Amino acid sequence: MPFTPTAFQRLLEPLSGRFLRGIVERHDGNRGVGEKPGAWTCQRHLKTLLFAQFAGLQSLREIEQALAAHPAALYHIGLRPPRRATLSDASAHRPLGVFKDICEQLMAQATRHIRHQGSALIRLLDASPIPLRDARFGWAEADARCRGLKLHVLYDPRATRPVHFAVTSPKVADLTGAKQINIEEGATYVFDKGYADYGWWHALAEAGGLFVTRLKCNGHRRQIAPQPADGQDIIADRHLKIGHRAPRGGARNALYDTPVREIVVARAGKTDLHLITNDLTRPAEGIAALYKERWQIELFFKWIKQNLKIIRFLGRSENAVKMQIYVAMIAFLLLRLFQDGPASSHKAGPKALMARLKGSLLQAFDLTNRAKPPPQSPTKRPQSPQLDMLFAT
């Protein structure tokens, strides 16, 4: 009988043996466990945590029992049923760099694919808190909003996947996280006024990037040159310069001499939206549409919190919590790659695809929606014509 890969195996295809082996060796991730057939390696650990993400498992006991229920299906995945203590210890002590690097390399694969297609580079920037209110997370820090962690994400709305992420303390400002990203020449960065910093905006422009954001209500405007306001809901479109030369008692405004553009957009029942950008050529309506597109990153945060496991955690240590967040990001990227490849004919969206996968993780993935009839008993099958000819002679 020909071998048919399960849905979980198809999901894991981008994580080839060589791909994982190089990252694990770089961080010495299998130190102390070796590479024996029964060893609890990084590769097995990752696959187990990914299985828990896709299956929606909530505890170490559920993971242990769910994998033990399908021993025959684990051979081709290179898995074995884990013990709760083994999984707990590995999550608490295994190097985080292994899982972080896997996620970054998966994101790089997607980025190369988009560049090859020649798509416009649009980057949405935002951060979202991950609350850890339980007293058992004693290591978690707090800011004015919440106690826990903060997830910083740079998101590609065309590819519908992140291209950069970082997990930090909530005390780390959004702007501090933004300054860690590599600026891509020709890309347009869209972010809210929480990232207001003229020095960073100037660095974006100097590196060949464009930005679209909101101008604070007390922003100083100079040398205003109105332009024709074309487009639906566009109230004003003007070229200008912003900021004082030395706004902080000696600190110079790097953006002082940089020409920018302000676009005022009317909103029904709300105050007008004042957008600022260094893109002097794109139509005003296009700039407004780009800023409206920023809501896609909000939807991304909402989706991963509702459909992946980054609210309830399997471990209490900082290492285990961050590892689970990294694995959730890996699961999201694998799902998107799966949706672009083997499941490309599935048009119902990622949430519906997740529901289908939960019911068939350790079975062959099938999108035909047709049930095969059970095999017929040999005694009830019609006699072969060749046998009829044999008896006739």
Number of helices: 13
Written as H for each helix and E for each strand, in order along the chain, the element string is HHHHHHEEEEHEHEEEEEHHHHH
Biggest sheet record: 10 strands, mixed
Strand percentage, roughly? 15-25%
Which regions are unreliable across 5 or more consecutive residues at pLDDT < 50?
none
Radius of gyration: 27 Å
Shape: globular
**Distance between the terminal alpha carbons, to the nearest Å?**
35 Å
Structure classification: alpha+beta
Tell me how many strands there are. Answer: 10
Question: What is the share of helical residues?
Answer: 25-40%
| Subunit organisation of the chains | single chain
Mean pLDDT: 88
Give a short summary of the structure.
With 393 residues, the chain is α+β, with helices and mostly antiparallel strands. The chain has helices at 7-11, 17-27, 42-55, 60-68, 84-93, 96-117, 174-178, 198-206, 284-292, 295-307, 318-340, 350-358, 385-392, and strands spanning 122-131, 141-142, 147-156, 161-168, 188-190, 210-214, 221-227, 234-242, 260-265, 273-277. The two termini are 35 Å apart.
Structure, explained:
The structure is a single chain. By secondary structure, the chain is of the alpha+beta class. The protein has a domain at 7-98 and 309-358. It has 13 helices and ten strands. The model has no long low-confidence stretch (mean pLDDT 88).
Q: Which secondary structure elements does this structure contain, and how are they paired or packed?
A:
Elements: H1 7-11, H2 17-27, H3 42-55, H4 60-68, H5 84-93, H6 96-117, E1 122-131, E2 141-142, E3 147-156, E4 161-168, H7 174-178, E5 188-190, H8 198-206, E6 210-214, E7 221-227, E8 234-242, E9 260-265, E10 273-277, H9 284-292, H10 295-307, H11 318-340, H12 350-358, H13 385-392
